[in-house]
TrEMBL record:
It comes from the Eukaryota. Residues 151-172 have a biased composition (Low complexity). It comes from Gossypium tomentosum. Its EC number is 3.2.1.2. Transmembrane segments: none annotated. This is Beta-amylase. The lineage of its organism: Eukaryota, Viridiplantae, Streptophyta, Embryophyta, Tracheophyta.
Length: 703
């Protein structure tokens, strides 16, 4: 593998050593030339002594020569002193040592950091690469300045901040490289190493609405009435508030906004309530829903998204499908000339944060589970999670003679036949395929019902007999049958990485067994997505299909990325775990659905710091993995949003301002329709947001 990496970077450490040797030889040749030049220089000293000095700079320039002349006269009557051979050898050794260190640094940057450095690179090349990574422009002559999308650095912060609040908000400091982001001292080294694979990827200019604690460019110093500068804190929700000695300083709510008029059109969908269809597969409130849909249509919302629950449609017996409630809903949507995004929901509803209804898996599946609980994901303590079926039974005929994958395919094929006219008319524009808990392609590693709380690392879910059977087979093929087990030192649901022997810095996750296990664990996730999406592509041929990924951003700034590892994403600091997933999606022509992870409110900033979280870093790693293989990206908001600050942050994510290729998301789904959204002020903000998503001009950009 090292050989292949050397081929990629175009130079090896041995090449750098050879360059170093050549440079030292050149240095020796230069020494001889310099010796000859010293004779001429000393001849000029006699002339310089009798010429008047005209400036302090001239005195500074001639002083070393005068000192050398005095020294030479004392040792040999002014004759040229020969440099001792030992001194020349010491100089060579020092130079070799220095250049060897430089060679190793450059080789490490090329190999592990994806820096595009030339063969004979020097420190200037490294500094220029860091500056470009931070979003600055570096010209060939070395001139360096922020890009046009960034405002100039705020020199003299205190003075600049006292002039006006609007000037204070408009000033932004260009973000530092990912390796320089501040974290707790105990993790500084791992954070620097963690950012290595993110070099040379697109990172957008931070928005003034970015509330992430990981984006220092968004912080602004505030000068209180007494002239003392207060602590620098992020911009928060509509008004700038800074806490200092328990005092809150309120500032005007007007924030500089980007003009989205003329930007690409991005369709906006609204996710319908979870309980829009009841357990009898009937519309829960058809009249109320119709009124809400008409209101959404009045502001040019493009369509709605709805979950098609497996536990409702195929509730009582295998292959007995009841689509009645969805038929009525889809007719209503078509009459209003709206579009539809549908979700094939093969998971239960009610066990996650924000679930306000309970929709279990089909009754006949629950009956099988009572007699054979191994069909569910299982943790190391033997606790079952009935939120969705274990991927270990994807090819096991344990569901009344069918495998899990066959059950999913039969369900999707029934939906396609039942709503054929909606597909033919283009009413159904996208099908999101459920691939795990909450419909996301991940393991249920953080179940609230088992006591998990943020920011716990979660637990591996591989202890049902079918998953262990797969692990045993993989270990035997590797030739180490004793590896057929899950890690025994990976902590519990609410552990932190440094508290475990597996996830701590230098832990077992990066040892021989750890790499074997994590490769197998993540490959099972990839294989499951590959199987189900291949059948979804067959069932919904001609219609866009998508797979949803979560934003597991806590512990992202540690070396192991423990929370991602337990969820099935093999994404430690020295490995990219999302490229393989994006490649798999591209294989099936599927889009990626990913939450914007618009940032937390002020009270949650401490939680982000304590968990060494980096939502922004994770988002752009995933987006670049998708864009590298040219797959569309759909998105939805991760948290409730009704204010302008939150909407502006979503807009900045969906339509990056400084993307060199002009890329943007293919669609956005608002999460979700509720009475709170329909309140007058909230709905006015939402209408304004929709217009800007569509690239239309708004009349009140600062109101």
């Amino acid at each position: 593998m090292a050989t292949s990496m050397q081929k990629l970077v175009g130079v090896s450490e041995e090449d750098d050593e050879e360059e170093m040797e050549m440079d030292v030889k050149e240095e020796d040749d230069e020494d001889e030339e310099n010796g000859e030049k010293q004779i001429a220089a000393q001849m000029m000293i006699g002339v310089d002594e009798v010429m008047p000095s005209t400036s302090s700079s001239d005195q500074f320039q001639y002083q070393p020569q005068l000192q050398e002349q005095v020294s030479n006269q004392g040792g040999g009557g002014g004759a040229r002193r020969s440099r001792p051979l030992e001194e020349k050898e010491r100089t060579k050794l020092r130079e070799r040592h220095r250049r060897a260190i430089t060679a190793r640094i450059l080789a490490g940057l090329r190999r592990h950091g994806n820096y595009n450095l030339r063969v004979r690179a020097d420190i200037n090349d490294v500094i220029a690469a860091l500056a470009r990574e931070a979003g600055w422009v570096v010209l060939p002559d070395g001139t360096t300045f922020p890009s046009r999308s960034q405002s100039s650095p705020a020199a003299g912060t205190s003075a600049g901040m006292t002039s006006s609040s609007s000037q204070m908000v408009s000033q932004q400091i260009p973000p530092p490289p990912a390796t320089l982001q501040g974290v707790s001292s105990g993790y500084r080294t791992t954070v620097e190493y963690n950012a290595c694979r993110m070099k040379s990827v697109f990172m957008p200019t931070p928005s003034p609405y970015d509330l992430s604690s990981t984006a220092p460019a968004q912080s602004s110093g505030v000068v209180a009435d007494g002239g003392e500068q207060t602590e620098r804190l992020p911009l928060i929700a509509g008004s700038l508030q800074v806490i200092n000695d328990k005092q809150i300083i309120g500032l005007p709510t007007k924030l500089p906004e980007r003009d989205f008029a003329g930007t690409p059109f991005v369709p906006v969908y609204v996710m319908l309530p979870l309980g829009v269809i009841n357990m009898k597969c009937e519309l829960a409130d058809p009249d109320g829903l119709l009124k809400q849909l008409r209101v959404l249509k009045s502001i040019n919302v493009d369509g709605v998204m709805v979950d098609c629950w497996w536990g409702i449609v195929e509730a009582h017996a295998p292959q007995e499908y009841n689509w009645n409630g969805y038929q009525r809903l889809f007719q209503m949507v078509r009459e209003l000339k709206l579009k539809l995004q549908v979700v094939m929901s093969f998971h239960e509803c009610g066990g996650s944060v924000g679930d306000d209804v309970c929709i279990p898996l089909p009754h006949w599946v629950a009956e099988i589970g009572r007699s054979n609980p191994e069909i569910f994901f299982t943790d190391k303590e033997g606790r079952r999670n009935p939120e969705c079926l274990s991927w270990g039974i994807d090819k096991e005929r344990v569901l009344r003679g069918r495998t899990a994958v066959e059950v999913y395919f039969d369900y999707m094929r029934s939906f396609r036949v039942e709503f054929d006219e909606f597909f033919e008319d283009g009413i159904i524009s996208m099908v999101e395929v459920g691939l795990g808990p909450c419909g996301e392609l991940r393991y249920p590693s953080c179940p609230v019902k088992h006591g998990w709380r943020y920011p716990g690392i979660g637990e591996f879910q591989c202890h049902d007999q079918y998953m262990l059977k797969s692990l045993r087979k993989a270990a035997e093929m590797r030739g180490h049958s004793f590896w057929a087990r899950g890690p025994d030192n990976a902590g519990s649901y609410n552990s932190q990485p440094h508290e475990t022997g597996f996830f701590c810095d230098g832990g077992d996750y990066d040892g021989y067994y750890g790499r074997f296990f994590l490769n197998w664990y993540s490959q099972v996730l990839l294989n499951h997505g590959d199987r189900v999406l291949s059948l979804a592509k067959l069932a919904f041929d001609g219609t866009c299909i998508t797979a949803k990924l979560p934003g597991i951003h806590w512990w992202y700034k540690t070396a192991s990325h423990a929370a991602e590892l337990t969820a099935g994403y093999y994404n430690p600091c020295n490995r990219d775990g999302y490229t393989a997933i994006a490649t798999m999606l591209q294989k099936h022509g599927a889009a990626l659905s990913f939450s914007c992870t618009e940032h937390h409110i002020l009270e949650q900033q401490d939680h982000l710091r304590e968990a060494l979280a980096d939502p922004r870093g994770l988002v752009w790693q995933v987006l670049n993995a998708a864009w590298d293989v040219c797959i569309p990206i759909a998105s939805e908001n991760a948290f409730l949003c009704h204010d302008r600050v939150g909407y502006n942050k979503i807009l900045d994510n969906v339509k990056p301002v400084n993307d060199p290729d002009g890329r943007h998301f293919s669609s956005f789904t608002y999460h979700r329709l509720s009475p709170l959204l329909m309140e007058r002020q909230n709905f006015m903000e939402f209408e304004r947001f929709v217009k800007r998503m569509h690239g239309e001009a708004v009349l009140d950009p600062q109101v």
